[in-house]
Structure formats: C-alpha cells, structure tokens
Amino acid sequence: MDMQQIERAMIAHLDNLTKPKGSLGKLETYAVRMAKIQGTIPPRIDKKGVYIFAGDHGITQEGVSLYPPEVTYQMVKNFLNGGAGINALARAMLWDVTAVDAGVAQEFSPQEAAGGANRLIVAKVGLGNKNFYTQDAMSPEELRRSLEGGKKIAEDAQSRGYEMVALGDMGIGNTSTAAALLIAEGFPAEQIIDRGTGIDSATLDHKRRVITEGVRRRGPFKTDLEILQKLGSFDIAMMTGFILGLEDKGIALVLDGFPVSAAAYLAYKLNPSVKDWLFAGHRSHVVGHGPVLAALGLDPIVDLDMRLGEGTGAVIGGYIVELAVRTAREMASFSKAGVSKSETDETSF
Question: Is beta strand 252-255 parallel, antiparallel or unpaired with respect to 278-280?
Fold first, then answer.
C-alpha cells in the first residue's frame, strides 16, 4: 500500500473502535503517523530507546556558557550511572538509555565504555571541535566521519529492534553552536540566540556578539554541508547523520530541544523527506526552539516550559505517542465489544 492507502486504512481502523469518530484527537493523528512510518496497521511500539549525543564545543573558549566544559564529561558519566533527569524519566517510561561520545574532550575508561543497562557508544571524532569564532569548527573529513558515525548508530537502533527512538544532546556550548548554524541558514539572530543554561544579561550580549561575528567570519557559505562543517560540532553533525540514517528503517524519531532541532533542520535541508519520520517531543523554554519547529512544520506534543536537554522532553512526548499506539491496538472494535455503532458522524455518544 502507498502512504495514502495506509492512512485511509488506519483511519478506518480507528473509526471502528469503541469511541466516537475522532474523539481521541491528536492521539489518533499520532497513531496514523506511526502506521505510515511502519507500514503496519495498527502500528506497535514494543521497544524504544533514547540516544544522547555528547560533545564539547570550542566556542566555549569565548566565555559564552555558564558551566565549564568538563561538565560534558561529568554528565555523560552521570547518564551511565543512572543519576540524571533522563535516567529517571526513562526508567518510569521504559526507555533504554544510550549515551554517544561523539566528541567529548576527555576519554572514557574501558570500564565506562563496556556497556550495561545504560550503554556508552564511543564514536569519538575528536576531543571537541574547534572554536568557530577563530577557525572552522571541523575539517571536511571530520564532518564526513561525524555524519557516517551517526548513520552507523541509526543501524544500531534498527539492530536493537526499536520502533521508536528519542534524540537528546549533552554539550556545554551547544546552544551557541546550534544558534550559529541556524543563523547561517537564514534565521534572524534575535529569534534564535538565548540564555542557554541561564547566563546573565551581560553574558547574553557577549554571546550574541560572538555568535553573529563568528558566522560572519566563517561565511559566505556555498552549501548546507559547508555551514555544518564550518560552524557545527561533532555531536550535532552526528545527530544529523543519525536522523538521515533512519530513512526506510520504519523507526519513528522524537526530537528533544533546541540543539537537537538544529540538527534536524540541517538533516531536513539535506533530505526534506526526514519530516516523514519525525515527531517534536516538546517545545522547550529556549526562544529559538519554536521558530525551528515551525520551519520544520512540526507540532510539539507537549509544552512543559522545560530546557534541560538530555532527551527529557523527547521521551515524554514519545511516551504520549506510545499511548496513542497502544490505544489503537488494544481498544475493542464495535463488533467485538458488542456495542452498537452509530451510522452518523456524531462526535460523542
């Protein structure tokens, strides 16, 4: 069946369940989207995992963040030990947790990389990318390795049997990198640059100057890949490759916050069909997140005023999609339940 046939069949399935037509609102929309992603009526979600891509950002050398760079390494260890916000949420909603070292500026020991309940994939391209204020953030070869690394991790998600994955990020300075990428893509700076981890007004003004000047110095840009190479980072580029790598795998991807959505926008510019398997888990408190989701045509599932990152908003939104899928699978039909079906289009019993 083609996509239109799958959509019509899934809507017919939903309309035959013991409820008024359309009464589950957006849950029905999510169930239809999952059916189209999987090519299955009704869809199913039995296994799901969150991937948190971590890397250090050279732009922190310009004093644009509240936290020191070593926090990236420390927080990845926290993910592995199960002590972060994403771990608490993932345990409650049964998501597997995988941290990805795309470019953390410190090495992890063999014991830390050995795996366990919370896995670490070491896909390190380098010990942090360079400072785009003073030089290109990556070489063309580093960009290629980052994108290919992300595509390999998409294969990991498929091999683990995930029907849904959530995408999170960890990296001090990543909101500055994300903002630079989006400004280079044409977004107005005043809509994109935000406080990130909570910097004061003076530091915010400094951050604006550094980012806008850094974009100017690296330009002009001929292609989207050149923008990613000159202004991006190992983790954001690897997330871009991960998103692209999910094509034709039947796996839904739930986006987290601003840096993740910047990666999604770059992936969209490289392959517009990525929208077919994306959900926006939430709209974060970061001011630039809303404009990016709007440009992608994605409606956030929840809006909880969050700005933690780590994939936290993605797993919450993804869990709501799972509830939609479970409802579509587990509700009885009118005939099985022995309930009379209305022949009208009434929206309530």
Answer: parallel
CATH no. of 48-320: 3.40.50.10210
Q: What are the angstrom distances between the C-alpha of 151 and each of 80, 110, 303?
A: 22, 24, 30
In sequence order, the 6+-apart residues with CB closer than 8 A to the CB of 9 are: 1, 35, 41
**Cα separation of 324 and 30, whole Å?**
6
Q: Checking phi first, is residue 108 left (phi over 0); if not, alpha (psi -120 to 50) or beta?
A: beta
Q: 137: number of CA atoms within 13 Å, CB side?
A: 39
The whole-angstrom separation of Cα 49 and Cα 153 is 12
The tokens describing 111, both together, are 């014991």
- The residues assigned a catalytic role are 310
Contacts for 190 with CB less than 8 Å, ≥ 6 apart: none
pLDDT digits (tens, 9 = 90+) for 55-103: 999 999 999 988 899 999 999 999 999 999 999 999 999 999 999 999 9
**Mean pLDDT for all residues in the chain:** 95
pTM score of the predicted model: 0.96
Residue 100 has phi, psi (to 5 degrees) of: -120, 120
Question: Alpha-carbon distance 284 to 139, whole Å?
Answer: 31
DSSP 300-324: -SB-------TTHHHHHHHHHHHHH
**Paired tokens of 219:** 């330009």
**Helix 70-81, helix 85-93: angle, nearest 10:** 30
Q: What three-state secondary structure class fits 299?
A: coil
**β-sheet bridge partners, residue 280:** 255
Structure tokens at 192: 């994109």
Q: Name the DSSP letter for residue 23.
A: T
The predicted-structure confidence for 291-344, as pLDDT tens digits, reads as follows 999 999 999 999 999 999 999 999 999 999 999 999 999 999 998 988 988 765
Tell me the angle at which helices 224-231 and 174-184 cross, rounded to the nearest 10 degrees.
Answer: 150
Return the SS3 of 138: coil
